[in-house]
Amino acid sequence: MVAVIAASTHAGVSGPASAGESAKQIFGAAELPAVLPARAIGFYSKGCLAGGMAIAADGPTWQAMRLSRNRRWGHPDLVALVQKLSREAAAQDGWPGLLVGDISQPRGGPMLSGHASHQVGLDADVWLTPMPGRTLSVAERETLSATSMLRKDTLFVDDSIWTPAHARLLMRAASYPEVERIFIHPGIKKKLCDTWKGDRSAMGKLRPYYGHHYHFHIRIKCPPGVSGCKDQTPPPSGSGCDGSLAWWFTDEPWAPAKPKKDDKPAPKKRDIQLSDLPSACTAVVRAPGPASEAEVTLGADPIARIARANAKAASAAALPGPPPPGNIPLPVPRPAN
């Protein structure tokens, strides 16, 4: 007999979650978050998210991209930080606004495609393309491509695309104390190392990594006082503008791995199961969800929010809302990331 994890009313899961399903199928099916106290559970690449909040699709200084993925959910602390970065970069850095990419699924967990991380609501991708001065259509948000910062077929920044505002945006993001690290392309890290004249105390948080030449990846620390959330080892001390960065401009990081002579065909990789995740993730799957996405969207239009609140108060049948918001694989050998 196959065990079944029952999906609760308003759970946002399309149906009962079978124990035979992989974790990515279970969490990928969730349309809405778990109405539980906000909590990042597990590690960035092995965990889930309770009490997730959505960043509004549109804000004064941001627009969310790829809406069909339903990955604009995060821990309230992360969503608030992304909004703060958008406001401060627009006001002080000459950056017109953020185009926000993937954050997490409504209940976090492994994704059906794409990221190995982004599972606990503490990671967010932000495009290096500035927000245009108009509201993008839904179709544009699905098809518009982010702009690479690199010269074609090189590891180096294209100075016809890169601007001082890009540098100010990245250094501001790194300056926030709750930010644990930011992943960027090695070429962008080198550009900052070579040209940044301001405060360099947060430079070490900017970690070179594969890809990340069209967006940057913000990772925040586990919120204080929350049990069951595991931080990544802090970045090495120093600016990172040293031999560890120079390594990225050798052949070694980009050379394909050489198979050993006695290598046998690798067995098919087993999908992560719900039982492989922290035990608290089972409660996240089972928990009820909100009545609607609007109930759990942080930074939505305030007028619309007030109208919804008034309508809710007038309806005897209205459901209560949720409580208010209160590892990437590494190549070896390589420098610590």
Spell out the key features of this protein:
337 residues, alpha/beta, four-stranded mixed beta sheet, three-stranded mixed beta sheet, globular, disordered N terminus
In words, what does this structure look like?
Helix 5 links the parallel strand 11 and strand 12. With 337 residues, the protein is an alpha/beta fold. The chain starts with a strand and ends in a 23-residue tail after the last helix. Helix content is 22%, strand content 15%. The strands form 5 sheets. Strands 10-13-11-12 form a 4-stranded mixed sheet. Strands 8-5-14 form a 3-stranded mixed sheet. The chain has 8 helices and 14 strands. It is globular.
Number of strands: 14
Spatial separation of the terminal alpha carbons: 45 Å
Helical element count? 8
Shape: globular
Helicity, as a percent range: 10-25%
Mean pLDDT, as a whole number?
Answer: 87
List the helices and strands and how they pair.
Blueprint lengths: L3 E2 L11 E2 L4 H6 L10 E5 L2 E5 L2 E3 L2 E2 L2 E3 L8 E2 L1 H17 L5 E3 L22 E5 L10 H6 L20 H12 L3 E6 L1 H10 L10 E3 L6 E6 L22 H4 L33 H7 L10 E2 L3 H13 L23
Parallel strand pairs: 5-14, 7-9, 11-12
Antiparallel strand pairs: 1-2, 3-4, 5-8, 6-7, 10-13, 11-13
